[in-house]
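May I ask you to review the protein record following this short note?
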Amino acid sequence: MTAGGAHAGGATGCRTPSWLARLAFAVGLLAPAAVPAAQPETITVQHIHADEAVAVRKFMRENPGTRVEFRQVSFQSLLESLPVQLASGEGPDISMVADWGGLSKYYLDIRPYIGAREAAYFERQFGNILGPMRGGDPHGNEIYGMAGAVTLNGAFVNVTLFKQAHVELPPPGATWDDWAAAARKVARATHTEMAMEMDRSAHRFASLALSYGAKLVDGQGHFVVDQGLRTAVEKFVAWHRDGTMPMDLWGAVGGTTHLDRFSDFMNGNVVFYFGGSWSLFLMDRNVGDAFDWKVVDAPCGTAGCVLMPGGAAMAAFRHTKHPELCARFLAFLAREDNMREALARHANIPAATSLVESGVEYPNDSERVREALAAFTRQMPNVPRQAYVFQGWRYQRAALNSLTTRISQILTHELDVDTALAFVKKDVELAIEASR
C-alpha cells in the first residue's frame, strides 16, 4: 500500500491535471500575439565618392528610425549599369546621375512630398539644374533632384612660360584667336612642344561652339547645324593644320573615344590647355610648386565667353517604395550647411545660387587651387541658358559622340566640314528615331 501509494503520489506530482492544461491552452488563445519590432524605412543611395557616406551618417543621426544604405560605384557604372537597372524597374532609390536629362523618365518628382516653402527653395537654388533634369521639357515644373556642385570646362595656362617669353597674359574678354596667337608666341620663344591642347571631347568643343553662336539644339529637341557651329569647326581645324594644336590627340584616335592629355600640361609641355575643373586636384598633387599656373576666364567668340557646365546631380527614382524618405534625404542634401561641407571635401564649384554669390571656403586646398575655384565660380553667372539646355538635352550624348567622330574625320581628311556636319545631324536624327 505504502509503496503503491508513494508511486501514485509521485506520478500525480509529475503530471499536469487535464483541466489545468485545457485552461492554459484557452488562456494562450486569448493572449495577444507578440508584435515584431517595426523595421525602419530603408533606402539605398549610391555615389562615386566614398566620403559621401559622411552625409548619409549625418542624415541618419538627425532622422532616427530611418536607414540609408550607402553604395560606392564607379563612374562607368553610372553611365552603363544604372540606365539598364532603371529600365528594368530596379536599381538604387537615389543615385548620382551624370546624364542629367537622359534619364529623366525614371526620376521621381519630389515636389508632392515637400512643402511649398521647400519647393520654392529648390527653384531658387537650383533653377539652372532643374530645367536640364526635366529632359529639356520647357513646360515642366517637376523637382527631380539637386546638384550641390557642378564642373565647368576651363582654360589652364602655364604662367611661368609666359613670364619666360616676356609675353603678357591676354586680359579677361580676350578671344580664342587672341589666346591662340599668344600661346603660339610663347611656345616659339620657350621651345615648348605645344601651344594649345583641348581634351578629345565634344563637350569641351561645345564651349568653343557656343562662344561663336552655335545653338546645338532647338526648342523642338533637334540638333542644329548653323553658322556658329561651322565657324567653330573651321577654327578648330585651322589650329590643327597650322600646328597650334597637335594632331596626335584629336587626329590620332578614331570613333567616340574620349582622350585627355592633361599630363602634357602638368609636365610643362603645353602653354594653354582647355580641359575642366575636375583636374584641379591633380595640379596640387602632381605639380605643386614646379611651375606657376592659373585658370583664366573663358576665351570669347563673337557670341560670348562660354564655359560648358557638367558634373552630376542627385536624383530619386520612381520605383522607390519610400518616396517621402527620398524627398527628405534630397532636401537634407540641399541644405546650405550640408552643401558647404560637401564642397569643401571635394574642392568643387558650387551650383546653388546662394553659394555662388557668397563663395565657399576650401580649408584643405592650396592657395592656387582656391584661386582657381574662385575663377571658375566667378564665371558661373555667365554660363548661358543655352549651355544648360544642351547639357540637359536627352540626346546630348549622341550629339557629342557624333561631333567627336566627325571632327576627327575632318582632321584626317576623310570628310570636309559641310559633309561632316551633315553626317552629325543625320547621326543624331537616327539616334532620336531609334529611341522611339
The longest helix spans residues 417-435.
